Amino acid sequence: MLLWLSRHANCLGLVCNANSGLFCALRSRHSMSFGNSIFLFFCLFWKTMDCIVLADRTVFVQVFDLSSVKPSDFVRYGLGCLERLADQGDNCAKDIRANLRIMVAGGDGTVGWVLGCLQELNKLKREPVPPTGIIPLGTGNDLARSFGWGGSFPFGWRSAVKRYLNKAVSASVVHLDSWQAVIRMPEGEITELPHALKKAEPADQLEFSKASGSELTEKASCYKGVFYNYLSIGMDAQVAYGFHHLRDEKPYLAQGPVANKLIYAGYSCTQGWFCTPCTASPQLRGLRNILRLYIKRANCSEWEQIQMPSSVRSLVVLNLYNYGSGRHPWGDLKPDYLEKKGFVEAHSDDGLIEIFGLKEGWHASFVMAELIKAKHIAQAAAIKFEMRGGEWDRAYVQMDGEPWKQPLIQDQSTILEINKVPYHSRMINGDS
Fold first, then answer.
1. Is residue 90 part of a domain?
2. Are residues 68 and 198 in the same domain?
3. 164 and 192 fall within a common domain
4. pLDDT digits over 10-69, tens only?
5. With contact defined as beta carbons under 8 Å apart, do 226 and 109 qualify?
6. Are 220 and 107 within one domain?
7. Measuring CA to CA, which residue among 88, 87, 86, 105 is closest to residue 96?
8. Do residues 137 and 193 both lie within one domain?
9. Residue 392: which domain range?
10. Which pLDDT score, from 0 to 100, does residue 271 have?
11. Least enclosed by CB within 10 Å: which of 134, 157, 232, 396?
């Protein structure tokens, strides 16, 4: 349909008198049946392109299926078409482009995919970047929860869709920090690359080398990715990695959220997350045996090493208030505690990111049940992990739910550096 829009761009101004636009993105082949049902609902009642009335205004609505149209194609062709029409003097196209909003029906991964493609508009100076709202169709839906769209989609979804779209065109816009993770390996490669991570281009590698003050050798490799919710290293990522592989190999075992949670819990036990003492095996010791943590505090250019407790077996870098299907592991901290620790109240647009630790599975379970708080470690404007092999030849990392196995080199450091992306993502506030 984006191809149709591109070919028939000259007709848009003749059939539409709208002064704002709403592009709805969803996967018809979503793992939950809602995705296909909502797509059919859009097509039957509003077509894939139409002008309808939402929140007392005429809105140009276009629906596209992420199963067949990538968000990058939408940015290139869909928005490119509107921009060409606007440049040719089409006032309707100009108003739609200026007031355009995006509604994504999906989970956190789908939303992050769309946000990542929209970031290209900032790089190309093609402002304004359309703000994004969410119809929550995923399992955790922490992005949707954080911006007032709820943690699940209601069963009375036909009437709910109209309510969501009315909010989408009328609600206020807020900001979200996004963070770039860069991995520099002295040699070797990541064999199973997750979607969230890409091999850096030579120009990017040169830029990263200059920023870090160290040159990459011919054997070295460099990867980069952007996350919006969290990045974690350690036992939780190892469990997630095993769970994802088991689900891919035996998809019939994962038939829904309840089955997924049971499998996840069982896999946690087999990996020693619950049952093995932290000192029982070299493979299960605390992270500080292989990892050094450095941070830059707000308004500071120098790296500061942070000592990690020996009991920490999972380290989580968190951007949002919500984590793990609406849990709050960082918590609502009292002013006297904030002052004592040198922290400030956490927000998703403050240019700071929170670091906390989880010990063993029981500790993590109590944290996720919100009976206790996680181990608060630091609050930072930038983070650097220095990982070195020895008894361990790998670490496990996950970024916004996508885990991978990170090779480690004995006596050589693998660097994972996290810095804030210089521009915010724009989100539609579902609570407003």
1. yes
2. no
3. no
4. 444 434 566 788 888 887 655 444 545 555 555 545 555 567 777 677 788 888 888 888
5. no
6. no
7. 86
8. no
9. 179-421
10. 53
11. 157
